[in-house]
Amino acid sequence: MPHGQGHSLRLDWRGEPRRVLLHDPPDAAGRRLPLVLALHGTGGTGRIMATLSGLSHLADREGFRVAYPQALGEPGTEDPARGAAWNAGPGFGCPLHPEADDVGFLEAVVDRVDRHGPVDPRRIFVAGFSNGARMATRLALEASGWVAAVAAVAGSPVAGPSPARPVPTLAFHGTEDRHIPYGGGTGSQGRRLAAPPAPEALAHWAALMGCDGGPERTWRGLHALDLWRGGDVEVGLWTVAGMGHAWPGGRAYAPGADAPAPDLPAAELIWAFFETHPLEVP
After folding, report:
1. In which region does residue 258 sit, left (phi positive, over 0), alpha (psi from -120 to 50) or beta (all else)?
2. How many helices and strands (H and E) does the chain possess?
3. Which of 18, 29, 152, 225 is within CB 3.0–4.6 Å of 133 for a Cys-Cys bond?
4. What is the pLDDT of residues 244-275, one digit of tens each?
5. How far apart (Å, rounded) are the C-alpha atoms in residues 278 and 34?
6. How far, in Å, are 43, 89, 148, 166 from residue 157 at the CA level?
């Protein structure tokens, strides 16, 4: 994160002090800018999320703010019993904080950032990694009134009822992911929770968002994009060939963690997707 452009914001949420790492692009003062909420995985931190995703560098070039909130629980451990995690649904949060209202907290984060520097209400986006990806999809279901579009990297969508409005979604999943297997089932690493196969999960998600029919497939080298469309809504799944549990084009989230695919720039693809899907205000 470039020197001088990182801010540690504090907010009190339900009697507990919480912190948000915020990155402003150059010359941001006084400008109403898009905002990306970037959600870390289990045991992560805002700074880890900034490092692995590369979103701050992209924000400098493209002119948007990035907020990296911190989930409740212990940072620095992937132990699902203790590690900091977003309450994305039953079994997906930190057991130390089973009643965490992270939907409400993240809405409060947007308000806090807006007090720091004005946020464009039509361009509030959410990108998450692993447990943060699942939380991004929960926000799509429960906060569609202010979430314009979401991106989910290495995380399966959560189950839930149809949202008040369809939310455009772009997902990435490595074929060799051992935490949340691309082919479905329980991974040999991470949480011991079964997930559906990634293509099946995204097809169901696309139907939930009102997309009709099957996807159109395009290729970028060995990596395939399946894209479902319905009206103005798009749902896409990048199948990342040979990659494990990682953020394509970024950095490994910890020493010894799976290596990201170097030839698929997820941050750039996510921002290009977000730019084309602002919130439509009646």
Report:
1. beta
2. 6, 10
3. 152
4. 999 999 999 999 999 999 999 999 999 999 99
5. 9
6. 19, 11, 17, 14
CA 243, 206, 121: angle at the middle one, nearest 5? Answer: 95
Beta bridge mates, 126: 37, 150
The DSSP 8-state label assigned to residue 91 in this structure reads T
pLDDT per residue over 198-230, tens digit each? 999 999 999 999 998 889 999 999 999 999 999
CA dihedral 77, 50, 246, 135 (to 10 degrees): 70
Burial 114-131 (b: 16+ CB within 10 A, else e): beebebbeebbbbbbbbb
Nearest Cα residue to 204 out of 163, 153, 147, 159: 159
pLDDT score of 100 more than 60: yes
List the CATH code of the domain at 6-275: 3.40.50.1820
Residues 178 and 244 sit within 8 Å (Cβ to Cβ): yes
Where do the structural domains in the chain lie, given as residue ranges? 6-275
Residue 233 in tokens: 């809504």
User: What residue type is 34 in one-letter code?
Assistant: P
Q: What is d(CA 60, CA 38) in angstroms, rounded to the nearest whole number? A: 15
Q: CB of 135 within 8 A of CB of 141? A: no
Report phi then psi at 243, rounded to 5: -95, 145
Alpha-carbon gap, residue 78 to 59, rounded angstroms: 28
CA-based nearest residue to 179, from 193, 198, 169: 193
d(CA 49, CA 41): 8
Residues in the chain: 282
Exposed, middle or buried: residue 3 (CB in 10 Å: 0-12, 13-18, 19+)? exposed
For 49-67, how does the pLDDT look when each residue is reduced to its tens digit (9 = 90+)? 999 999 999 999 999 999 9
